[in-house]
Amino acid sequence: MARQQPPQRAWDDYFIPGTSVLRNKFTGPGQPYGETDQARLTAREEHRTRLRLIELRSHPIPGRFDYDHMKAIHRHVFQDVYEWAGEERTAPSGPMFKEGHAYYPAGPALTQAAEEQYAKIAGANYLRGMERGAFVAELGERWGELNVVHSFREGNTRTQFAFFSQLATQAGYRLDTEAFKVGNPLRAEFVAARFEGQDTGSNRRLVAVLDRAITAAPPPGPGSGPHPERGPVAPTSSVHAASFPNPPTTRSPGTSSTSTSRARGGRGRSGPEVGR
């Protein structure tokens, strides 16, 4: 059965008419498009998504660490806030900018760029069997490239942390997400490193930042990883209970692919990007 395509939204369609506030699910009398006050929307959004992220700590979403998996995580985290949760953004048609840094334009180039990065994750055997230095380098490379793709209209960073934390755990490492909380020094360095990667095409600074927050994880118990076609095992507090992919090993353990192929398109400003 053909996959149902999400509706095509123009840039302005994401906003409540006459405002710069994103349409949202917090509707009510006089607010048919959702909460109109940006400060209140931010507070309510952060509260709801925080609860959803907590859920993912004990019940991670099973998947193959591909585009569908990333979309499923975004859908779960933002399901209470946006109708388009889990959908690839469909605007702007030109490059999207945030603080002067360019992201991919919406459309086929974005989709292709995203799929290429997930294929590299699979091609690297989901980063399993790598010694720590190679693992951190590969993780930073894929994270930096998927960030410049910026698949979603809002909430990319939170979704990326959930996705890459789960990817790290199934590969035998732990990403300390608490170190990247807003207000912590490593958070500012993380943001600056991603912007530098966008501007220069090099993710070395991002790799160095992630290197300070990654440790070896304790091995999972026997039988904790189910077959990918059969879904998750009984609920447990470990991310290792999530569905592990079982791909053919196409790369030698310990190797790293660090190419940075980008197709951002032209450098025209298409509007602000307010996502986090």
TrEMBL record:
UniProt-listed GO biological process terms: regulation of cell division
Enzyme category, top tier: transferase
MF GO annotations: AMPylase activity; ATP binding
InterPro entries reported in the protein's UniProt record: Fido, Fido-like_dom_sf
Residue segments, region Disordered: 215-276
Top-level taxon of the source organism: Bacteria
Pfam family, any one: Fic
Keyword hit for Acetylation: no
EC number: 2.7.7.108
Compositional bias ranges of the Low complexity kind: 251-263
UniProt KW keywords: ATP-binding, Nucleotide-binding, Nucleotidyltransferase, Transferase
Coiled-coil regions listed in the entry: none
Catalysed reactions, as listed in the record: L-threonyl-[protein] + ATP = 3-O-(5'-adenylyl)-L-threonyl-[protein] + diphosphate; L-tyrosyl-[protein] + ATP = O-(5'-adenylyl)-L-tyrosyl-[protein] + diphosphate
Domain (Fido) ranges: 65-212
Entry protein name: protein adenylyltransferase
